[in-house]
Amino acid sequence: MPPRVPWVVGVSGASGTPYAAAVLWGLLAARLPVDLVLSRAARLTLLDETGVSWRDADWPAPLAAWLNAPYGADAPGGASVALGAVEALVRVYAPGSLAAPPSSGSYPTRGMIVVPASTACLAGIALGLSKDLLQRCADVTLKERRRLIVVPREMPYTGATLRHMLTLHEAGAVVAAASPGFYAGARGAADLVDFVAGRVLDAAGVDHDLFRRWTGDLGAARRAGSSPPSPPSPQPPPSPSWSPSEG
Hints:
Blueprint: E1 7-11, H1 17-29, E2 34-38, H2 40-50, H3 60-68, H4 83-89, E3 90-93, E4 111-117, H5 119-127, H6 133-143, E5 147-152, H7 159-170, E6 174-175, H8 189-204, H9 220-224
């Protein structure tokens, strides 16, 4: 069985949980394992924006509910994620679990995506505070020279936040602000969210089909009149080789 090498995904308390859901969807659709860390503030934001109450003791159900209704249960739904895919590909660690596997550089990962990244989270990572597991994982990612992508959503930025972004850039991180493009033929908020998530996945080197790419043909997406087909629903891995290892 090949070793499990996950992407670490950190979700901070900034507004923007649909961005995190779209990134997670893309990773699971690509059948990539994920280690997920939600900060304490992120749980409140998730409850406010989606109505999903996060429970560490029974995380697969709330995670599936979040991915299947990233704008809340009363919003129009799309494709659905299989609970089996969530259970097979994802591991969840509490923000206070500073001894969790991804807190160590000897634990192999593909890198880390922090989405959305609050200004407090940006500051903590830039200053190396490691005050919780999310910040510690980001610090480990930087020191091990792995790929770190941070997605700030709040604006406008203070001078301090801009300096923190520059510090992260100079340390090798990719600062990918949640700024959607409009050339891809967006027809609603979900398309704009998918554009941002797709660009984040581009930075991570993960294949996806979340938006129409620029081809040089002016107005092509607008003339097409619709968004790209929905990405395939994440399904449980087809063989035991994709199941998380024991322990």
